[in-house]
Amino acid sequence: MLRLRLGVGAVVLSAAAMFLAVGCGGGVSEKSLTDAQNRIDALKAKGVPGDTLSNAGVHLYQAREHFSKNNGALAKKSADSLKFYLEKAEKYYQDQVSNLGPTIDAAKSAALKAKEEVSGYQARKIDSTLAVVDSLRKLDWLLQANNVAQELVALLPSLKDDEAKAKNLGKLVPGEWVTENRTKSEEFKEVNAVERKVFTFYRDGKVYLEESKKGQSGPFFKEDWLFKSWGTYGYKGDTIMLSINRFAAVRQMFTKARNDNGKAVDWKNEPGPTYDSAITDGSQDRFVTYDDLKVDFKRNKSF
User: Fold this and answer.
1) What's the pTM value of the predicted model, to 2 decimals?
2) The predicted structure's pLDDT at residue 97
């Protein structure tokens, strides 16, 4: 009999524990809270504004807190509020996206029409942005797709202005541009080095750069190097964009001295490697505004 009573007691205790576990959660479960979080994340990804989701986020946090403390009544109350605000946010999304297809199409049409009037970097900007719009649309992230499309439409007047500047630069830039800078020091008379750059812009869109430096550039340092670059160029408004596809370190000779109470002694050569490499990662790309080019360089030849 004793064994039987213990068994019955265990059954009763187990049922009570189960009742408490269900009762404390008030019908709220970890799965339901996780599902709610997933729904909020999905709406965020689709571009629903944060302020539209803030109430749902607050009540989700409160529901988790109450659930973790086995406070069933408050957990249920927060979960009910969570459900209300989450459904409201999902309705907002559906109301917003129901007519976005034609709006996005109209923006794309305006961009494609504007593309007919531009070229180079301006046209590439339109193409790359439309590609983003199409990608977002395939994911059914219509709010984000529309935001990007409308930003592009707002940018079109600026791109047209940039195109006008680019066409003007096309008449002014082609040629050979040269600059030389000399390094000297009043304190160290032996310091005397010349850095020279030659930028050659061909009318077919190709560019060739030659950059060198030779001489003693510091009291304990001498340089003698030559770099060459090849690539193409274009215009982004008033800026010259250089895309380098080949770079050569023709010469890299460096000489360093030991400082002996302000006197350079024991000069030693420390040559760098020479190489000629294809560039595919854009690491040697650069840009220069036309105003800076005019100030820093002198045009030796016109093409």
Assistant:
1) 0.67
2) 80
